[in-house]
Amino acid sequence: MLVVEDLTARYGPIEALRSASLRVGAGEIVAVLGPNGAGKTTMLAAIMGLIKPVSGRVLLQGRDITRQDPERVVRLGVSLVPEHRRIFKNLTVRENLRLGAAARRGGPWDADLGGLLELFPILAERMGQLAGFLSGGEAQQLAIARALMGAPRLLLLDEPSLGLAPRLVESLFELIAGMRARGFTILLVEQNAYQALEIADRAYVLSNGRIQVEAPAEVLRDEEELMRAYVGTGGGQAAGGATAERGAGDRRAAP
Ligand code: ATP
Question: I want to staple 53 with a disulfide (CB 3.0 to 4.6 A). Which of 9, 95, 119, 255 is the partner?
């Protein structure tokens, strides 16, 4: 579905991505893990065409989309759920979803809405409510549902668990796993490494703009030292099963 080859991106003198490569197969959930400032958002921005990499390539189903305008990348089938959600708080849930369908080709905007809302039953109950009144977890669901309204081939999720209570993080990750069961392809950027590895097929560890490790998620789950060194959190065993204690407080722990 997606191939990123040797991508280098800069903000003036700051090299935020350094020859970073990754790939996402159709139907996979691939996680990019890394601490604050590792270059995760920059990776997504470069894929979307929001920033123009200085070198390297981005291929979507074999088609070179490097440095395309974001509007075109969206029309080619890539949707981004940005960090902090960025839903329209003064619009209703329904209006937010309708805006998400703007990039759809053909058919009424709400053709697939019924099927989509099976994944997001809470939104079905809140269609007429202003999005500003949603809880954090509901707002994140709306941001994801809005992105899916464009019927993307590839969904990019930027730190979807950010700011959510541990219990909500758990159900959000279950939801994302459910999306894979429905055939969606997902590139998931997360600091919340432990839970991302629970649902991902494969993962990359990004640090200082470089991909340091690529491995199946189940392998990385057991690499406690490595995960602690790069991401600031251990794998499943290091958590001792105490998911509830892995709250927002230690999300920002630097290596
Ligand atoms: P976070 O979890 O904080 O979003 P991240 O892994 O997504 O971290 P990026 O946001 O991609 O990291 O940032 C990578 C590097 O680029 C950091 O050093 C950051 O300070 C720098 N950077 C990001 N955006 C800009 C910008 N608009 N201008 C200048 N430097 C930037």
Answer: 9
